[in-house]
Amino acid sequence: MKSLPNSVLRTFQAGALALMVFALLGASDEGARFNSLGHRLMCVCGCSQILLECNHVGCTYSDRMRGELMAGLDRGENDDLTLQDFVQKYGPTVLAAPTGTGFNRVAWIMPFLALALGLLTTIFIVLAWKKRPALAAPGGVLPVSGAELERFRTQARKETQI
Amino acid sequence: MSQIGSFALLLALALSTYSFLAGVLALARPGAGSERLGETARRAGIATFAVVFLAALVLVISAFHDDFSIAYIFHHSNRDLPAPYKFATLWSGQEGSLLFWSLLLAAYGFVLRLRHKTDVRLFAYASAIISAVQIFFLLLLNFAAHPFALMQGELPADGAGLNPLLQYPEMVIHPPMLYLGYVGFTVPFAFALGALIMRYPGEKWIRITRRWTMVTWAFLTCGVFLGAHWAYSVLGWGGYWGWDPVENASLMPWLTGTAFLHSVMMQEKRGMLKMWNMWLIFATFWLAILGTFLTRSGIISSVHAFAQSSIGGWFKWFLVITFVTFTFFFFKNKSHLRSEHKLESLISRESSFLFNNLLLLLACFTVLWGTWFPLISEYVQGNKVTVGPPFYNKVAIPVALLLLLLTAVGPLLAWRKTSLESLKRNFMWPALGALAVGILMVVFGVRPWQDIAYFYALMAAMLSALVGLTVASEFIRGGRVISRHTGQNLLASMVHLFHRNTRRYGGYIVHFGVAVVIIGILGTPFNQDKEKEMGFGDKMTIGPYTLVCESYTQDDNPNYSNEWAIINVFKGDRKIETMYPERRFYKASQQPQTLPRIRSTYKEDLYLTYEGLNEQTGRPIIKAHLNPLVMWIWVGVLIMIGGTVLALIPNAVPVRVPAPARIQTAPVGAGD
Amino acid sequence: MTVATLTCAMVTLGVLFYVFYLPGRLHMGPEKTRLAYLQERKEVVYENLRDLNFEHQAGKLPDQDFKSLKASLEDEAAGILAEMARLEQAAIRPLPGRKETRI
């Protein structure tokens, strides 16, 4: 009985959060969009820098590209279309990160796949090692027993007190 | 001069080849004469150092004498280059830095061979392996990237000059630090492989290499962060890490090396993870070579592509050969690497190390994957794509946060077994503290639901607090135990505690440093920047600062001409500083450069660059960045280095107990 | 040219002399003895025991776990100490016809 209101509450919370995100998206002004898109593009002058961070003295590309980005936004194009224009003009390397389509998806999936596989393997190893039967005494040292054991145990205890 | 250098390189190649062959022969065929042969091999290794040193010396002297008949000096120096940069010519270009690699390796080998009496046979194996690596670099230097190659035709009057980006004080120390780190991992690798080949009984090799590994790690850490600091202070884009392939290349061995530093403790203390450690140290060595290759081959475009050439083929073969050799010996002597203990509990230091290794390796894999994906993409779909900061920020940050969580929890776990009860008890106060930090941040305006970056920043702050607090609680709890026994006050007890186990508590200080670095990094989402054309008296406001342009001025010296802005910085009505962002034009290389100026406080950095003149209006453009908390990155690194240095101090309470060691007759065979 | 040649010749001679002139007796060092190996193991087990004691006192382990872990480590230490004692005895009075065993 208790769980029902909780889940309803959670649904509301999730809904509210989603609404808020949409509201925030809608509220983003052109400056923020310019900033966000400009950080998703690379300068193509060969400096390997993000477009808005390229500060090469005399870079002949970044100013022009920033102008083109601004023009795209002024035309009222959406984000995808604006980025697509850049890809058409400068080739796919102009995007600062692989897209989420086609083979490029592999770039994104792989690290998380590796994390999942790694986690599973580690958990498996931990469990397997825990279940492993007691191993033979390392280095071939034979166990001792009886009075000898007591004597040496006492010696070890004495010598390892804090 | 150049003849002496060329000859020294040839002689060094002959010596290291001899050192390797004679060393292997002496080890493979023990018997009459093998001891003398082994000794000559050791001495040839030592002599290699002397001769490579001579070659490096010749190159440096040639740089100081402006000997432009040597092509390398012509390409990387000029008459008016200041003296420290002339010295740095040694590692400014490809041939020189390969020579420098070789020199550092020879120097490490020199120290190792002098200390051979610690364990003569093990050191002989390590020495032979180091010689083998040395042969590769000397082959490269003699036949593919000769630093003493001569200029053809008429001698030029002046050199082409050093890349302006490299004319910065930190550049004099960043490459040596990084290289000391790269090269240094050859030593623990050589010992690990040597111990495997000879089926060395016991884990003493780890004790022998423990300090080497820590020192090497500290150098690499220093190198990586000096690189970041250099990028911040010189490249002028307002950031310190651009996920550039070459930055990545230095990060990869750092990640695997860090994993090795942790997991090797499991082998040392518990005889576990032997095979894993073997692969880990091999991977670290291999990635260090790969890093050198990426930096120096120009295979992947990068701001570091200072050198492009055909040495790629050599490196590829070397990487293949080392992999095959290592794999061969690994499978041949695998039985020697059996684990000695089982895992007693899931909640133990051991299992935390396993997860730590998983995450560090995953981070390394992600970086490797991102670095190579453009090439993979070209192969699969016929076109290159860019894998830039947006990719890494999305993928690497969650991994880093998980690592931070583990860094916080790890120290609370005891070896072998920890009760859940005690974990809960010990974790509660730090967790409450971290929660308080989180609440405070939200109160002070961080809205994690607005942007994922803010969410990450909040998590990073809370986890950093958690790391700091668990470290503090470990010191306090341990200090109390000591205090109970000795009656000292808590502070004295904590110092005593540190001296009992410097590696552990030094390590905790390193962890604390990492948390501080993360605090510095988490300022990034709150960065602001503004760009404005500023004439005399014009104002710009950014954050709490008002910038007023006083004037512009210029100067000229033989190396470069420069102009800079004089900007007065006000906070409220109070003038707090005058800053001089600068632009230089280097004459020899005909290259311009911007030099940002930075005002650092514990709260934020004000970072100004003089971008140049607006082509249409002719008015100067100033760009200002406000980067919160950046200073903590550098403070954190200093703490990390300090912690490592403390961890190097020998334990005050001797762990050894006196025992007679008179019998020298019965050799042990393999430990299996 | 001659200075360079002379320098090269001197360096070569010096190096050859250093590498190959080996007066006196040399040895590659003894092979690692079983006793030395046991000594290392003992140090490791002792360190683990000290750690265990310390971690128990710092409140990370309940008494029951502490006792069982301590017992197993002490057993391991006792085995090592016993073998070390035997080896030392044998070194003082070598038993006729008995050879040191290899591990």
Describe this structure in words.
The complex is a heterotrimer of chains A (162), B (672) and C (103). Chain A is mainly α. Chain A has two domains: 3-94, no CATH class; 103-133. Chain A contains six helices and no strands. Chain A is elongated. Chain B is α+β, with helices and mostly antiparallel strands. Chain C is an all-alpha fold. Residues 97-103 of chain C have low confidence and may be disordered.
Helices, strands, pairings?
The complex is a heterotrimer of chains A (162), B (672) and C (103).
Chain A (H helix, E strand, L loop, with lengths): L2 H25 L2 H9 L23 H13 L4 H12 L13 H28 L14 H14 L3
Helix pairs in contact in A: 2-3
Chain B lengths: L1 H27 L5 H31 L6 H6 L6 H6 L5 H21 L5 H24 L25 H16 L1 H12 L6 H32 L9 H26 L3 H24 L14 H21 L16 H33 L7 H21 L10 H24 L8 H35 L3 H11 L1 H20 L6 E6 L5 E4 L2 E12 L3 E12 L2 E6 L2 E5 L4 E5 L1 E4 L3 E10 L6 E9 L2 H18 L24
Antiparallel strand pairs in B: 1-10, 2-3, 3-4, 4-5, 4-6, 6-7, 8-9, 9-10
Chain C lengths: L1 H19 L13 H24 L5 H30 L11
Helix pairs in contact in C: 2-3
Oligomer: heterotrimer
Helix content of chain C: over 70%
Radius of gyration from the alpha-carbon trace of chain C, in angstroms: 26 Å
Largest sheet of chain A: none
- The outline of chain A comes out as elongated
Number of helices of chain A: 6
Chain pair sharing the greatest interface: B-C, 71 and 53 residues
Highlighted features:
heterotrimer, A: 162 residues, 2 domains, elongated, B: 672 residues, alpha+beta, 4 domains, four-stranded antiparallel sheet
